[in-house]
Amino acid sequence: MKKINLIITVSILLIACNAGVRWFVIGQQVMDIQSLQQRAFTLRKNNNLTFEMQVRQISRDRKSQIGELQKRVDMITAELPGVFSFPEYAVKIRSLIDQNHLSIASTLRFSPEKTRNRSLYVYSTSIAATGSYPAIKQFLADLQNLEGIKHLSGLTLTRVNRGSRRIKLTMKLGVFLRHDTL
Q1: Do residues 150 and 87 share a domain?
Q2: Fewer CB within 10 Å, N side or C side of the chain?
Q3: pLDDT tens digits, 151-181
Q4: pLDDT at 90 over 50
Q5: Entry pTM
Q6: What is the CATH number of the domain that holds 95?
Q7: What are the backbone angles phi and psi of residue 42, rounded to the nearest 5°?
Q8: In whole angstroms, what is the distance from residue 134 CA to residue 136 CA?
Q9: How many angstroms separate the first and last alpha carbons of the chain?
Q10: Same domain for 90 and 118?
């Protein structure tokens, strides 16, 4: 009987030790796996939050850049001559042509055009003038020194005749003016 009790006791101890080792090792592995999964989820969540925060920050930065650009445009627009001063501006351009002894083929016809910015108008015209090279050069310099913003495009200089010293200037001129609201 003693032998049977001893065998039963040893068997119970072995089963208990086996269960203890199994619970400790496997239980620890399960806890490690769960904690790793939870940690991975937290990291993913934080990365997503970080990404979303970065996107929001970029959006805020972009909005502030747009705001800064709009302020600059408004500052520049405030410095431009008003639309109501256009007749005087056109007279200045015509007087520059006369002052530099250039002859023009037709009258200057300015056509107003709206721009993307509601507070700006562009008055465009084509200029075809003939004169000496120094006179044309001086006209362009004087035109550049007029107040406001001008856009010159399609500027060409050609000789009137093969042996002639007279040069023909053709260009399109756009003058930006501020739209004054009453």
Answers
A1: yes
A2: C
A3: 888 899 999 888 888 999 999 998 887 776 5
A4: yes
A5: 0.57
A6: 3.30.70.60
A7: -65, -45
A8: 6
A9: 118
A10: yes
Of the three residues 79, 100, 122, the one that is the final residue of a domain is 79
Tokens 């009987």 correspond to: 1
Half-sphere exposure of 22 (CA within 13 A, CB side): 6
State residue 44's pLDDT score.
64
Note whether 71 and 90 are same-domain residues.
no
Query: What pLDDT, on the 0 to 100 scale, is given for residue 113?
Result: 82
**Same domain, yes or no: 102 and 46:** no
Residue 22 sits in the same domain as residue 92: no
Q: Which residues pair with 177 in a beta bridge?
A: 121
Task: Please count the other Cβ atoms lying within 10 Å of the Cβ belonging to residue 124.
Answer: 15
Q: Output the CA angle 44-48-50, nearest 5 degrees.
A: 115
User: For the chain, what is the domain count?
Assistant: 2
| Residues 143 and 114: beta-carbon distance below 8 Å | no
